[in-house]
């Protein structure tokens, strides 16, 4: 009970110090507030970016391998000319892979036709990406339909003029009209809309279906040369349930080398890319940003800590005679020490709480202006409060210790 009463009195002393010395206290708390604000702001931004990356990877599939001409993330020790001379993946190679792969659940060959115009009556949408693909595209890349269906294997083989359109395309061309069954003009050719996709929104990789038009690859032959590098041909392979991307990649490498008849001494003339490559490359960037946040924030906290320590020494000086009276009435050293230590922690918690509140307000403003959900996590809130408590203990211990060691007679005499 005595200890709880000490804590209560210390908190009341802290609040009284805030009330009596408003300007001095605010200036001293400023360092803690700014430090917590900077550190938790950086952590919140990094957590948001990492969360968006994880969401993007999950959307594309964490066990999907992309067979392409160029590797992701730079060219390593090889001259660019070696990559430039590589052949692009072909539809025939995709068909051979489909017959041989044991670890794959599904695979798809894709080509891209960028910056095209769509027309429906008097409505037009420009800058559209048309994707020509094979039958299993919806099994490799998760597609959520708001209406209609995916094209059949027969429609793909025949090159039927059918299309699935993204949410932004549907809104731009049809508004409130149901697009299913309607004919639109895509890159100068008539196609029938058989499916519409749910709005996804942007992600970290810019990979959203909202402005896609998906057509059978054999129809895309009428619009673009699917063997040309300008159409960005590639092959996507998704592993079976429980099979990781690394295992799929290992089998793909062997089968692709066999298909292209590469001898054991020859280097690969294709790239096997995975979503986690991007995430791994961003990890050092996030680590640097986190470190920078810590460094900048700790400098502010250091200044704030000195400010809190200064307030506590002044508080000890102002209450020296009270301390003497308490000790002469039997108060133990730990009772006096706890008073000032709790007061220091309370002051730092006030500064830290203000910093966290400012971060919270910043997340609301940023989310409102950009439409990107930024969340101040419970862990970051806990971390901010924990740092505040540590600052309070470190900054307040020596003043509290000096108060506890005061001689009661000398302390009482100092008040007269």
Word description of this protein:
The protein is 56% helix and 17% strand. The mean pLDDT is 82. α4 packs across α9 (245-259) and α10 (275-318) runs parallel beside α13 (378-404). The protein has two domains: 2-56 and 280-413, no CATH class; 104-242, no CATH class. The chain has a six-stranded mixed β-barrel. The chain has 14 helices and ten strands. With 416 residues, the chain is α+β, with helices and mostly antiparallel strands. The radius of gyration is 33 Å and the shape is elongated.
Order of helices and strands: HHEHHEEHEHEHEEEHEHEHHHHH
Count of distinct structural domains: 2
Helicity, as a percent range: 55-70%
Low-confidence stretches: none
* Strands ordered across the widest β-sheet: 2-3-8-5-7-6
How large a portion of the residues is in β-strands, by DSSP E?
15-25%
Shape: elongated
Number of helices: 14
In whole angstroms, how far apart are the ends? 32 Å
Name the structural class.
alpha+beta
What kind of sheet is the major sheet?
Answer: 6 strands, mixed, barrel
Give the C-alpha Rg: 33 Å
Counting DSSP E segments of at least 2 residues, the number of strands comes to 10
Organism: Anseongella ginsenosidimutans
Transmembrane segments: 26-46, 291-313, 334-366, 378-398
Keywords: Cell membrane, Membrane, Transmembrane, Transmembrane helix
Subcellular location: Cell membrane
